[in-house]
Each structure stands twice: as structure tokens, then as C-alpha cells.
Design a protein that fits this description.
The chain is mostly beta strands. The radius of gyration is 17 Å and the shape is globular. β13 and β14 form a beta hairpin. Strands 2, 3, 5, 6, 8, 11, 12, 13 and 14 form a 9-stranded mixed β-sheet that branches. Helix content is about 5%, strand content about 45%.
Length: about 210
């Protein structure tokens, strides 16, 4: 969708009730645009997953365009026996243009306990966002969060990269939860998706 525009306030509330299986996706990329005002836009996603339920959040990428300012949040509440597969991808600028200013906040709670609380910022005025400590010159970034209903036998990190020029992905377990996070950077959205898919393939299952 060609939104949110500057000043927009968008919100989604998604609930998967007990034993439900739900997949949420989009038909095309979401495009953050400046619009008629320089005011920041907000896009808030609130997800709740009940006992023995499974939710897959798999939208197409978010594109941050020149002059836009977007603050995006994901707030996820999981029951102790629920499962989650959450993918978020950001493309920083369209071809040949710098990105706008994009911040994201992702918080995941399982059985009332926070297992992930992550904040990122890209585009000016965020400091050093494109440098070697963050994107290393790449313009596509994203991650997967995978939460299982039961612990996995194989709980060790992986580094995924056949060719450094095509980006990197790291898959790592979270502490005190049957959960993983995969983070990737790449020069293009297609290569980013390939890295995230490769990270997911290391896991035996993504649903209850």
C-alpha cells in the first residue's frame, strides 16, 4: 500500500484465539511516503496469540522513501503454548534514492515475560546507520522471530552467508524461551528474502 503518509496514524490489532491457525500477509509492499506534511507517521501492529494457537505474520517489505518519517512498532503477546513466525523486512530507499527516517520497535512477550525487546533506527538523523557496525552499505534489512510451543533440541547460533557481497544472516536462540531470531542484511530485497529463508530452513518446524 502507498501509505503511511506523513502524519498518518495506522494501527492493526490481530488476535488468534485458542487453537486457531492464522497467516497474515499483504498483496504488495508497504511504502512510507512524505505526504503533504513533514510530521512523522506511525504504524502500530498489536498481535495476541492464544493457547495452542499459531500465527504467521508474513507481509511484503516496507519501503522507506526519501523525505518520509515513520515510527513502527510491533507488540506481540504469546500464550505459553502458542507458536509464532514473524517476518519484517525494510528496504531503505527506492532505486537511486536515500531512505527517509525509519524507526522500529519490536517487543515479544511469552506467558507474560518479555523475551525480545529491540529498537532500530535507519536514515538521517540516526547516527552511523549505514556504517560497518550496522548495514555495511547494504540497503535491505530484516528479521524473523520464531517461537515454538516446545523447546528445540538444537539450540545453537548459525551464520549464513555463501557470498559476503550478497549479505549476511545470523540465526540465534533467545534466552529462556523456545525461540529464535534471525537478522539479515543484503543489497537487494530478493537476496534478503533468500537469506531469511535459508535461516528458517535450519529449524525443524515453525508451528505447534
Amino acid at each position: 500500500m502507498s501509505a503511511p503518509l506523513g502524519g498518518d496514524r495506522l494501527a492493526l490489532n490481530i488476535t488468534a484465539e485458542t487453537r486457531a491457525r492464522l497467516e497474515v500477509t499483504t498483496a504488495a509492499a508497504t511504502i512510507a511516503l512524505r505526504g503533504p506534511t513533514t510530521d512523522p507517521a506511525t504504524y502500530d501492529v498489536r498481535i495476541a496469540v492464544g493457547e495452542h494457537a499459531c500465527l504467521n505474520w508474513l507481509p511484503e517489505p516496507l519501503i522507506s522513501t526519501r523525505g518520509s518519517t515513520l515510527h513502527q512498532t510491533f507488540d506481540v503477546d504469546l500464550a505459553a503454548t502458542s507458536s509464532l513466525l514473524l517476518r519484517e523486512e525494510q528496504v531503505l530507499g527506492r532505486t537511486g534514492e536515500p531512505p527517509g527516517h525509519l524507526t522500529t520497535c519490536l517487543t515479544v512477550r511469552r506467558d507474560g515475560h518479555t523475551i525480545l525487546d529491540q529498537h532500530t533506527a535507519y536514515g538521517d538523523p540516526a547516527p552511523a546507520w549505514g556504517g560497518p557496525a550496522l548495514l555495511g552499505g547494504h540497503r535491505a534489512t530484516g528479521q524473523l522471530v520464531i517461537v515454538h510451543s516446545e523447546p528445540d533440541a538444537d539450540q545453537k547460533p548459525y551464520v549464513i552467508s555463501d557470498d559476503p557481497a550478497k549479505g549476511y544472516a545470523v540465526l540465534a536462540p533467545l534466552v529462556d524461551a523456545p525461540a529464535w531470531v534471525a537478522t539479515a542484511i543484503a543489497p537487494t530485497p530478493a537476496l534478503l528474502r533468500s537469506l531469511l529463508d535459508a535461516a528458517l530452513a535450519h529449524l525443524p518446524t515453525t508451528s505447534a
